[in-house]
Design brief:
The chain is an alpha/beta fold and about 260 residues long. About 40% of the residues lie in helices and about 20% in strands. Strands 2-1-3-12-4 form a five-stranded mixed sheet, sandwiched between helices. It has a five-stranded mixed sheet with strand order 7-6-8-5-11, sandwiched between helices. The chain has a two-stranded antiparallel ribbon with strand order 9-10.
């Protein structure tokens, strides 16, 4: 069978080559992401969907926001931070450790008072007054915004002085939840996402703390300096604003702005 060939004019051939190049997906890369512990469940889902959509892999490390901030200041090579507050990313920008203008609120957190015992926590959190022996777990308020929100809640309820001697402090919201789940604390202030995972609610009882009792838990993402020239880092921040990612965030009980 004869084989036919056609020589394209130089200008047309160049345009075709450029179009083909644009059609090719960008080279897949990795992005190093420091993620607030409360966002563990949803971020694992989002990272998987992000990789499927873009080819980029998000390498995740979960922990307390304050500890991540200290590590970033000491040269940790994180490229994106998903904080549990909005103050830490703002401060990192001011310190020249994050890319100016890259901050955005990816979620608004909800605090809950939780017990592993069914029926232990009532619909108004009165158990804090009724059970004067119960140990209460919180995340370390010096490094974890959910811990600070817990102290603000106790103050607003007028029970802080009574409860403080019984506080059990974890270094992150994950450890605070583990204290309650293991029985080392009868009660604990944790994230709603930890007890109301889609289709897998935790055993026990909880009260969703009214947002009027503490400062808003606005959780901001920011592009850190090591990621400023990384397409994968910027792609992840863009993906967090996409409807598939926002649907996951809503499903885990977070608010959106």
């Amino acid at each position: 069978m004869p084989v036919f060939s056609m020589k394209l004019p130089g200008r047309v051939a160049g345009m075709l080559a450029a179009a083909l190049a644009l059609a090719q997906p960008a080279q897949a890369d990795t992005v190093q992401v420091a993620v607030a512990a409360n966002f563990t469940g949803p971020m694992k889902q989002i990272a998987a969907a992000f990789q499927q959509a873009t080819g980029h892999e998000a390498v995740l490390l979960f922990g307390a926001t304050g500890k991540f901030a200290a590590q970033i200041a000491n040269g940790a090579p994180f490229e994106v931070l998903l904080a549990a507050d909005d103050e830490t990313p703002r401060r990192l920008e001011q310190q020249g450790l994050a890319v100016p203008g890259s901050r955005s609120t990816y979620a608004v957190g909800r605090l809950v008072l939780y017990s592993a015992q069914p029926g232990k926590v009532d619909a108004r959190g009165e158990v804090l007054r009724a059970d004067r022996q119960a140990r209460v777990a919180i995340a370390n308020p010096r490094v974890a915004p959910y811990g600070e929100a817990a102290l603000q809640t106790l103050q607003a309820l007028g029970v802080r002085a009574d409860v403080e001697p019984r506080l059990v402090t974890g270094e992150s919201i994950t450890q605070a939840f583990q204290y309650v789940a293991s029985g080392n604390a009868e009660l604990g202030f944790v994230a709603l996402s930890q007890v109301a995972a889609p289709g897998q609610p935790a055993a026990g009882s909880w009260w969703v703390v009214p947002e009027s009792l503490h400062a808003p838990i606005r959780q901001d993402a920011v592009l850190l300096l090591p990621g400023r020239d990384k397409p994968a880092a910027r792609a992840l921040l863009d993906y967090l604003k996409s409807e598939p990612a926002r649907a996951v965030i809503r499903a885990w009980g977070y608010g959106l702005q």
